[in-house]
DUF4351 domain-containing protein
Amino acid sequence: MTRFIWDKFSKDFLETLLSPYGTVVVSKEVTSEIKEIDVYFSPNTAKIPSQLGLLGRLCQNPCLLEPYRNGITLDGINDCLSKRFAIREIFHREAKRNKQRISEEEIPKLWILTPTASERILSLFTAQLQPNWGEGVYFLPEGFGTAIIVIHQLPAIPETLWLRLLGRGGTRERAIDELERLSPNNPLKSASLNLLYNLSRNLEALSKKTQEDREFIMRLAPLYQQDREQAVQEGLKRGLQQGVQQGVQQGVQQEALKLVLRQLQRRLGEIPHNLEEIIRNLPVERLEDLGLALLDFDTLTDLDNWLHP
């Protein structure tokens, strides 16, 4: 169960960061044996923004992304390669059907993301570093169209941050420290933290946790609490400021109501009319409580349960 939760986080993380710049398909099926590509990405923009760093560079062209929770194995690499061969066959078959020629450069690349990789594994596949890619990026011979990104070997620079968040232990913790120091206006920071918070809550719900799970939950706890308190303070401040300007208590309530409804819509989507009516009739004190509680909501059911304890 722990592995499933971490794997889901990796896929959700890549999908969230890449979806503004192209089509992301998670668990894409290929071949009659129903093999699944973890993440298949096809960009819809000429150039992915530099803020995605190395991750953006990997995804400048259509590609397969295969993130691994544990160090990659011989079987794991062969399994990934079989998916890439299946995609290659699909592209060539489509080109033949349309009477077109296709070059190897047009076939989606395969990027295997792994926290670690042994020298033996890299040697077996003749995986080599390339000067213009830096440490941690090992390319297989050209005909494979594949590279292994060893996350724990990546240099600790801003360009590798988003990939290092998929690492383990100290590598991930240091990446979280860097993420915390980013500007609050950075949209990738907010999206990444929300995914990390969701991961922490999912792990916390497990009856059996690994030591790494517990350490991760403890690392996220103060950061999560800080974000919650800041969100509540900002919401109250805006509501109170508007109330003072209007000079009436109704102004405070209306501003608090609009803020809470806006936050709920951003988090849960469209709010059903019956639930919205209940919220509109809440006193200011309850609206403040809801503004704090909604940070833990994942579904409309959570909201309904809060309104009907």
